[in-house]
Amino acid sequence: MNDWDALEKLWDHAFYKCLGVDPAEKPLLFTESLLNSKDHREKLTEIVFEKYKPSGLFIAKEPTLSAFACGRATALVVDSGADMTLVTAVHDGYSLQKTSMSRSSIAGNYMTDVLYSMIHSRIQAFGEIRPKYLFNKKQHKGKWEISLIPRPNTTVSYHNYQVKLILNDLKESLCRVSEEPFDENSAVSGQSYELPDGNIIQLDKERYRVTELMFQSNFQMGGHTQHNVRFQDMVAATITNSDVDIHKDLYGNIIVTGGNSLFKGFAERLQKEISNRNLTQHPIKIRSPPNAQEKRFSTWIGGSILASIGSFQQMWMSKEEYEEVGKTLVHSKCP
């Protein structure tokens, strides 16, 4: 992310329009990805202190906060979101990003694209996916009638975004994780999905084939074999690269979070796959937030927990410290 002007506008909207607070009157806690660069951390620190002038600032790692949301200071966090899947070891409240992290591009957006390629021919049977902004839908004599609305000034990116939202909902509504490695020859019950314009599309084996991307190393698509890094292998590699003294704690506290953890059967399948390849005697325990919203926003929940802890109050990077040392202070105060 290099468009800092756009980011400032988002912050302005969040502070002044959504929250209705003056950031100068409060300390601010930001979350960041493990892949955030040093330059970006320094730039964020500089903008926040120079523009918003808060009394304090802290930047926390997302896996650490996800662990806190589940009441754990040491855990292995499997975070599978829209753009990336990260598996990170967290020990005593610190993300071990240099040695104990694995990442994969097998994530939500990629699986949505794969699903679209699988059902593309079925979509062509009735034309295309039409988002709601392209038509009016009225009921007449018991039937729905569609009248198209010309939108000549719509950008391609906006249209593609609206189509992607529909495909995401289709995937999230119908796709499931198989209890065992999915057998293409097995009988699968199909389920239907109604598109916004009333057209019906049915998913059969695709409901399970898409999610197999997360657990199979070889995946057939378009007549080609695609090689993936399996989630269970990422878990094993991350733990292996961690200090041997914490292996037991990591295996016993595997936290799954992110949108892809919401697929029905995800946690159970992951535990089974890890158990099948596990060469140690350590017990394996998959933990996750209790409901869908907490899985999606575990980082924010962990942030609220962290900020409410009494001992954390001394960890804020103060405005006075920033003025004395400068933006590079963020690396020592927020490791």
What does this molecule look like?
Helices cover 40% and strands 20% of the residues. The chain is α+β, with helices and mostly antiparallel strands. It has two domains: 4-105 and 229-333, Nucleotidyltransferase, domain 5; 108-227, Alpha-Beta Complex (Actin, Chain A, domain 4), CATH 3.90.640. Strands 3, 4, 5, 6, 13 and 14 form a six-stranded mixed beta sheet that branches. Strands 1-2-15 form a three-stranded mixed beta sheet, sandwiched between helices. α3 (62-69) packs across α11, α4 (108-124) packs across α5 and α7 (231-240) crosses α9 (266-277). It is flat and about 70 Å long.
Blueprint of the fold:
Blueprint: H1 4-19, E1 28-32, H2 38-52, E2 56-61, H3 62-69, E3 75-80, E4 85-91, E5 94-95, E6 101-104, H4 108-124, E7 135-140, E8 143-148, H5 156-174, E9 191-194, E10 200-203, H6 206-209, E11 218-221, E12 224-227, H7 231-240, H8 247-251, E13 254-257, H9 266-277, E14 286-287, H10 292-296, H11 298-308, E15 317-318, H12 319-325, H13 330-333
Parallel strand pairs: 1-2, 3-13, 13-14
Antiparallel strand pairs: 2-15, 3-4, 4-5, 4-6, 7-8, 9-10, 11-12
Helix pairs in contact: 3-11, 4-5, 7-9
